[in-house]
User: What shape does this take?
Amino acid sequence: MSKLIVVVGATGAQGGGLVRAILADPSGDFAVRALTRNPDSGAARELAAAGAEVVAADLDDEASVRAAFDGAYGAFVVTNYWAPLTPEEEAVRTRAEMELAQAETAARAARDAGVRHLVWSTLEDTRPFFAGRDDVPSLDDGRYKVPHFDAKGEADEIFTKAGVPTTLLRTTFYFDAFVTAMAPARGADGTLTITFPMGDRRLSGVASDDIGRTALAILKRPDLIGETISIAGDHLTGDEYAAALSDTIGEKVVYHSPTLDEYRSYPFPMAVEMANMFQFYAENHDDFTGDRDLTEVRELNPDLESFETWLNLHKDELRAAIQ
Assistant: This one.
């Protein structure tokens, strides 16, 4: 009989990737219960049609999560820092506080349900690296430097303190951002440009589907309980990303690396937080990329996509994003 895996955030990029990976797995080791706040959404209906059990659950409703975890062998938990929130919701708590509370809910539910292996999707806590640094603005009343990293890193111990057998899965920048927030933009002179403040440092990236595929491999490995697995699909400089995009699009793309202060001044929400993130990527470059050894990741996930592979699979979406 297949072991049941509960997937939090099943209609999102990471959770959806795991649901699809389980459903496509020829071994049949696992069955999947897809948790979503809205089981009537188009994405949820697609998962149900593909063979997933779709269940309504909300990380802000502990009773619903506890019920959804019932009978599960394993679980995948991810929280969404970028979830759309109303002004009223943002006034009650910060996004970091939301993630910490939701991690607590998931940890208690997994503990009470007797989950035997949980994969927590997380990131590094940047605060030890930036300790005492005045050149990196503090956020959330001084509590964090990169809240969407730091809160996830802070939440790591929530699962271990709850006694839940957990593997930490550290992710990174999504290649998918090149068809959304970081799609090549056409300037006044017609040149396509990608922009991020990394200088000549390499930026680790990963296909969001590879997070799900790697999580499946981890769930098949109880010997990885208690371990931290850090993943990426490629480590490329801005110029290398631009060159690969150029080859795929058939039009030159250039890389622009503004100063960090310039990037922090850009008129979009969370520009300061994103600049701090890129500063962490750049200054912690050796450790961050070193922890994400591509050979080791590929041993877990042989289908790991390089940026070139990802581009070939998504070139139509990329061209549409530019248009």
